[in-house]
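Hi C.,

You asked whether I'd gotten around to modeling the 286-residue construct. I have! Everything is below, sequence then structure, no commentary in between.
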Amino acid sequence: MVSPPHEAMHRIFQHDPGLFSRVSRYLGVEIPTPVSATALPTDLTETSPVERRVDTLLRFETAEQGPFLLAVEAQGKKDPDKPASWAYYVSYLWTKYRVPTALLVVCQDHATAKWAQQPVHSGPPELPTLRLQPLVVGPHNMPVIVDPEEARADLFLASLAAITHAADTSVNAILKALATALRDVPEGILDPIVEFTAQGLGNRPVKHLWRNLVAVDLSFYKSYIFEEVRAQSRAEDVLLVLEQRGLTISDGVRSRVTECDDPEVLRRWLTRAVTAPTAEAIFEGE
């Protein structure tokens, strides 16, 4: 099942293809700034029944080196089957488009990043034949951007920094700097930054910090995150009313209320909480 962090880790490159050339300096390589970039179909399936689909595929045109392809893969954990798939992707794309092809793997933890960096050889040790060496982006080499001015200078890089450091304690400071940097940013730029960052954080506890920062620092911003913050606040109101009335709140009631993200349902429960004889009674008829 594809998760929100998985989608954010590669789709951010679709929205800002030039991000790759800026990220490359943290990888120890010099990638020219593209003159243009085109998103290509990601389905690499051939006539065989096995489906092959890369996460994001971009074609770059550069003035210095000509065109090249970039396949971006989001990797959440070690997978022994992936290196063979990656080798297939690169070989197939090189054969199909006849232009140099690079592979970028984006990770959110050090162990997965270290694993993904290992070169893979096709063939026996003395006859490697084909060597795959992915470029890997992760918490080990992405910058920790905690200065709002630095974040404002490259918002997509700051968002990627938050996504790749999502499991590190440094992500709190990155998110605060990014939220500050987003003030007065046009909505056309603001929207994808907010959404990619939220997706990249997944279900980690730090997602609540980002939602609160968006709600407070970007109070004008209306998105599903804004609605989630409002729903979360209303859920807390329901529980508070029940507690103030001295009613016993079971774990089941508490979970059902806090996990609800429907504003209308929460409003109905809040109204019932004022007079309900028991906490469970707010659910009657549903």
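If it helps when you're writing up: The chain has a mean pLDDT of 85.

Thanks,
B.
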